């Protein structure tokens, strides 16, 4: 499928990271070596551009730190690694599996924890391999987007969004709890073009981010209090006669109840709660209420609070009151699942036992029957990314075998007994959809696997094959099938029709945009039980959640720990990935951003080390004084900080969010409801 140009073999790729942009890429290979990576100009959203991480993939692929061979650690966490062969690795793992099966007469002691290292469709082969063994224990849910998904499910019945290009038709763009200047850079050209055409850009964030710098209005809100702001805006817009009565009358359910609720809300109270002067909210309401072309992008950041789901429902309700939903250039956009209609054959559940991925340590601890004894980690760095880190390490200590499939010796890999080397997207074939734009593309294999690396799919096949030689019939995982044949079985007629192709191999000619409406919900027929936008959701009520968007007071700093710790996503990292790429590592030490007044009160200057602590622990960070951070908030961007003891999530006990179970099987996690104090070292 590859084509040749100037002596290069060129292949197509999609960056499979958990990233809004899911970029199209071209890999240029000469003499078997990846020499150049560019954006794929045929990708209609990313249009040939890549972020700094994408541009530095070559360094990642050929990094001297990449894992080359299967490794065994002599003493978990000791750092004494020994190179072993794949045969030896498989023998150790299979012997443990069979031994556990004999001891427990069950496959439940094997546990899988997998999340977002690679969103390629064939990476669900990891679950497939587990499911082929019988009922196992698996982490379920998402640390990322659960509360917001459920909120939109209640309101609109499904997760859809408009083509990001629709932003260019907007009169007003509200970037609410999202930082696309860092986390979705390919959206910026659309926002700029809209601005050139006269659109007003409003950014709502507690922190003056790079995105806020591009805004016409910056609303510095209090964390977790956006619900108060959204409801105040909805109330003012409706009561001043700027609501869209037609939309409300013809396309919504439960309006009278919600209208009465709005009528009883006190604007002074709401404005105090969200920390905005009422006059300012009224000014915003006048702007927002002046048009239906209001494109609201509600980001993942705003739902990482205990009432995150209600917050999004309040924003959806604001959208419905203005009538922007379904209007070209309008709507409330969070994420979509429109292009994820694969067959997911690997996910057929043989009766697994599921543990909430966000309370994994606690749930491991509570298992009475069939305790977990062996853990398989794939596409995850849970020791860096999950909350309750100390407890997690304690639980891991109790396990008999931990296997991690990785590209690098991450914190989690370093806490494993066996580490198996994984390929990158340049060394394997796959298909990758996006949760933001509507393009799907192919990952071709550009180069041979790095040393002895194998794809998650191949590793699953090898394990199944070895297990079956030890004990025939142990695994039903197809061991001979090629990635292409698996892809044949993952696609279906509906997906092909959506992409306008008859076979996935046509994606080698370039990524395809799904034929979904450019403007989400333009038909004004919703996927809810009533077919309407549901101010009142019986489905929510059945889940013991208030049936309509309600204001719930967020958390506030406690006397003992007066500062919020917001650990939002970093510019040069992708969760815990890329921080070990020297070209990208801007800060050699983990940095905490502190407001000048706050720092002065503690006698702290830029560059000084500070101890940031709460009831869960202490971490040491380098202070960076910045007026971008409000006085009562410390900002420290999340991610794996190689070689550092600063485990951000050790200060986080992982309070649950209000929603998430319906979409992902588990509630989300309030990553940003964390309170700390600090002192100079
Ligand atoms: N460069 C880069 N890109 C990434 C990632 C990365 O790590 N780095 N990660 C990817 C992944 S997995 C995800 S989930 C997305 C996340 O990307 P985003 O959706 O942008 O989410 P966050 O970075 O979590 O938070 C965005 C903003 O929300 C603000 N915020 C926090 N609390 C509140 C609140 O209560 N109200 C409001 N209004 N704002 C609040 C934060 O200050 C932050 O500026 O990005 C993806 N893209
Ligand atoms: N404090 C704080 N914590 C957070 C967040 C926050 O905002 N603040 N955000 C949360 C969010 S939104 C998310 S999505 C999670 C992300 O948490 P994780 O899903 O654990 O994400 P990553 O840190 O990207 O780790 C993925 C790992 O997979 C590996 N990998 C890459 N490709 C492959 C492959 O093909 N096969 C295998 N086997 N491995 C591969 C990478 O090297 C990497 O180490 O973190 C959450 N944690
Ligand atoms: S990390 Fe995101 S923006 Fe960067 S290349 Fe990958 S998909 Fe594109
Ligand atoms: Mo995420």
Question: How would you summarize this macromolecular structure in one to three sentences?
Answer:
The chain is α/β, with parallel strands linked by helices and 681 residues long. The chain folds into four domains: 3-61, ADC-like domains (N-terminal domain of TfIIb); 71-141 and 350-431 and 449-502, Rossmann fold, CATH 3.40.50.740; 162-334, 3-Layer(aba) Sandwich (Dimethylsulfoxide Reductase, domain 2); 563-680, Beta Barrel (Barwin-like endoglucanases), CATH 2.40.40.
Strand-helix topology:
Blueprint: E1 3-5, E2 8-14, E3 24-30, E4 33-39, H1 52-55, H2 57-61, E5 71-73, E6 81-83, H3 86-104, E7 110-114, H4 125-131, E8 137-140, H5 146-156, E9 172-176, H6 180-183, H7 188-196, E10 200-204, E11 217-219, H8 226-239, H9 245-251, E12 252-253, H10 255-264, H11 267-274, H12 278-288, E13 294-298, H13 308-322, E14 331-333, E15 353-356, H14 360-366, E16 374-378, H15 382-385, H16 389-397, E17 401-406, E18 418-421, E19 430-432, E20 439-443, H17 456-470, H18 483-490, H19 493-499, E21 512-513, E22 533-534, H20 538-542, E23 563-566, E24 591-594, H21 596-601, E25 609-614, E26 617-625, E27 633-635, H22 661-664, E28 675-680
Parallel strand pairs: 7-8, 7-16, 8-15, 9-10, 9-13, 10-11, 12-22, 13-14, 16-17, 17-18, 23-27, 24-26
Antiparallel strand pairs: 1-2, 2-3, 3-4, 5-6, 5-18, 19-20, 20-21, 23-28, 25-26, 25-28
Helix pairs in contact: 3-17, 4-17, 5-13, 8-11, 8-12, 8-13, 14-16
This protein binds ligand MGD (2 copies), iron/sulfur cluster (SF4) and molybdenum atom.
Residues 18-20, 144, 176-179, 182-183, 204-207, 209, 221, 223-224, 226, 299-302, 304-305, 566, 568-571, 573-575, 672 line the site of one ligand MGD.
């Amino acid at each position: 499928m590859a084509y040749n140009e100037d002596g290069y073999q060129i292949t197509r790729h999609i960056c499979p990271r958990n990233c809004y942009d899911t970029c199209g890429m071209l890999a240029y290979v000469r003499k078997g070596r990846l020499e150049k990576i560019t954006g794929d100009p045929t990708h209609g959203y990313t249009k040939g551009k890549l972020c700094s991480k994408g541009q530095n993939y070559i360094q990642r692929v050929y990094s001297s730190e990449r894992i080359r061979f299967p490794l065994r650690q002599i003493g978990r966490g000791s750092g004494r690694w020994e190179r072993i062969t794949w045969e030896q690795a498989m023998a150790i793992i299979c012997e443990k599996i069979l031994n556990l099966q004999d001891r427990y007469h069950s496959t439940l002691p094997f546990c899988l924890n997998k999340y977002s290292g690679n969103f390629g469709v064939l990476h669900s082969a990891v679950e497939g391999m587990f499911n082929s063994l019988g009922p196992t224990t698996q982490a379920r849910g998402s640390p990322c987007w659960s509360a917001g998904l459920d909120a939109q499910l209640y309101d609109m019945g499904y997760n859809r969004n408009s083509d990001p290009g629709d932003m260019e038709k907007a009169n007003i763009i509200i970037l609410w709890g999202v930082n696309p200047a860092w986390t979705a850079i390919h959206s910026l050209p659309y926002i700029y073009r809209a601005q050139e055409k006269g659109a007003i850009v409003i950014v709502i964030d507690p922190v003056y981010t790079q995105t806020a710098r591009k805004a016409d209005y910056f609303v510095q809100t209090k964390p977790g209090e956006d619900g108060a702001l959204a409801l105040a805006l909805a109330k003012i817009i409706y009561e001043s006669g700027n609501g869209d009565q037609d939309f409300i009358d013809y396309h919504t359910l439960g309006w009278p109840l919600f209208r009465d609720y709005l009528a009883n809300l006190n604007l002074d109270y709401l404005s105090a709660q969200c920390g905005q002067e009422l006059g300012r909210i009224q000014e915003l309401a006048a702007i927002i209420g002046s048009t239906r072309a209001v494109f609201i992008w509600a980001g993942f950041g705003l739902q990482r609070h205990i009432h995150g789901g209600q917050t999004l429902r309040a924003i959806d309700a604001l959208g419905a009151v203005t009538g922007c939903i379904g209007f070209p250039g309008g709507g409330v956009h969070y994420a979509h699942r429109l292009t994820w209609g694969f067959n997911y054959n690997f996910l057929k559940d043989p009766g697994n036992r599921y543990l909430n991925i966000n309370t994994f340590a606690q749930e491991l601890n509570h298992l009475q029957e069939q305790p977990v004894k062996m853990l398989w980690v794939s596409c995850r760095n849970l020791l860096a990314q999950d909350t309750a880190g100390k407890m997690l390490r304690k639980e891991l200590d109790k396990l008999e075998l931990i296997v991690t499939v990785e590209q690098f010796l991450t914190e989690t890999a370093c806490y494993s007994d066996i580490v198996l080397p994984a390929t990158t997207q340049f060394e394997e074939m796959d298909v990758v959809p996006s949760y933001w734009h509507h393009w799907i593309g192919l990952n071709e294999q550009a180069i041979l696997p790095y040393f002895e690396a194998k794809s998650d799919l191949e590793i699953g096949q090898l394990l199944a094959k070895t297990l079956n030689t030890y004990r025939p019939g142990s695994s039903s995982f197809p061991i001979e099938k090629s990635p292409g044949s698996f892809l044949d079985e993952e696609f279906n007629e509906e997906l092909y029709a959506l992409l306008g192709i008859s076979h996935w191999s046509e994606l080698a000619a370039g990524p395809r945009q799904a034929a979904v409406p450019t403007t989400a919900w333009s038909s004004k027929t919703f996927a809810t039980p009533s077919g309407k936008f549901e101010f009142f959701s019986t489905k929510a009520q059945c889940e013991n959640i208030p049936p309509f968007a309600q204001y719930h007071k967020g958390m506030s700093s406690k006397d003992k720990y007066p500062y919020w710790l917001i650990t939002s996503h970093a510019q040069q990292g992708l969760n815990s990935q890329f921080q070990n790429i020297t070209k990208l590592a801007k800060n050699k030490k983990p940095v905490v951003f502190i407001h000048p007044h706050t720092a002065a009160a503690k006698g702290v200057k830029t560059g000084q080390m500070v101890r940031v602590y709460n009831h869960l622990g202490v971490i040491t960070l380098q202070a960076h004084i910045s007026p971008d951070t409000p006085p009562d908030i410390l900002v420290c961007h999340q991610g794996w900080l190689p070689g550092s003891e600063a485990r951000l999530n050790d200060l986080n006990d992982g309070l649950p969010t209000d929603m998430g179970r319906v979409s992902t099987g588990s509630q989300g996690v309030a990553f940003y409801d964390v309170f700390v104090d600090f002192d100079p070292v």
